[in-house]
Each structure stands twice: as structure tokens, then as C-alpha cells.
Amino acid sequence: MWCIAPTFAPHAQHIAVEFVHPVIVGKRALPAVALTGPDLTGQVRVSARPGDVVIAVAGSAEPQVLDVMRRGPAWGVTTVWIGNGHPPQIGAADHVLWLDDPDPRLPATGDFVLMYHLLWELTHVCFEHPGLLTAPAQDCTEEVCITCSDEGRLAEVIAARPDGTAMVRSASGAESVVTALTGALVPGDLILVHAGMAISKVSEQ
Length: 205
Known about the structure:
205 residues; 5-stranded antiparallel beta sheet; 2 domains; Rossmann fold; Hydrogenase_HupF/HypC; isomerase; Phosphoheptose isomerase; alpha/beta; globular; 25% helix; carbohydrate derivative binding; SIS_dom_sf; 4 helices
């Protein structure tokens, strides 16, 4: 788990400690790290691996958290966003834990601490009842291309090449894609990939 809180660094550190050093005897210690500094997107990019969790504590207008959350699917991570006041757009993160109270002093109260304590409790409930983590078998939902059996997925450009291809990172790993449909790309661009081809750039909106 990677924890970020640009304006409230102690929250990121507290979350990491909760998971690394459980206060209840017999509970599993879990790897968690608080990331701090001026370039949180860069830090999460080089740290996170598919299957990791990135949890952020921030307001909905925090640009670094917005950037990390929108790149989460390309990195293959599960994103959790805790905050208060005006909520982020629907779909901004995989899980949003939000308090409606806009009081800017709220992060200094125990309300946020209560939320991530509950998150810790729920995590251990899932470990004790592994059936909760098992996804039910699903019939074909036709969410993949019937021609090539591939689905459109978000990817982040690692490097653009002069031969009309680019190396990208998606939840399934690094791969080379053809960029004929998108034109020039630069590292950090988010694109939609389908059947080995970059089919569109993803805007920041």
C-alpha cells in the first residue's frame, strides 16, 4: 500500500503505521509506505506495481492526487480517496470515502482517523473471511471485442519511438503499441490501447 497526503502528510504516515504495525495481537502486518515530496505522481509511478493499493487523503481539487488517481488504472493499482467537502467526480477513484462537511479544519479532527481505522478493520475482516474476496463466476458480458478478444484499456506512455510505436505501461505490464492513430506521444501521456494499437489520447478532464 502506498499512502499519499500532499497537504496532510501526517495522515499518510499514520495510515502506513496502522497497516505495518497492527495494535491487535495476531493481526497480520501489511506492507505500507507513506510517500512525501514535491512529485507524488513520479514517486507512485516508480513505486507501485499491479495489484498494489494507493490511498490518498486530500481535497477533491488537489492536483497531484487527481493526477495519481486518473493514472491508477494504467498502473494496475486500486485507488482509495479519503477527503471532505466537495467530492471528486464519480469514477475519480475506485473507492471514495468522503465527508460532506466542508470545514477546512476537519482533517485535523479524528474523523479521517476513524475512516482509515475502519478501513484497517475491514481489511482484516476480509483476511479472516477469504470468501469475501472471491469474485463470483460471470458469464460473458461482451465487454471485449468479438473479433480479437481484446478490451480497451488505459495505458501510460513510457517512451515514444521514431518508428511510429511507443512503449507503454498498463495494468498487464509493459508493451509496444502502434501510434498511427494518435500521432506524436510523449512520456506520461495517457492513452487508450486496443489490440496493440494506441487508439486515442485521454484528456485530463
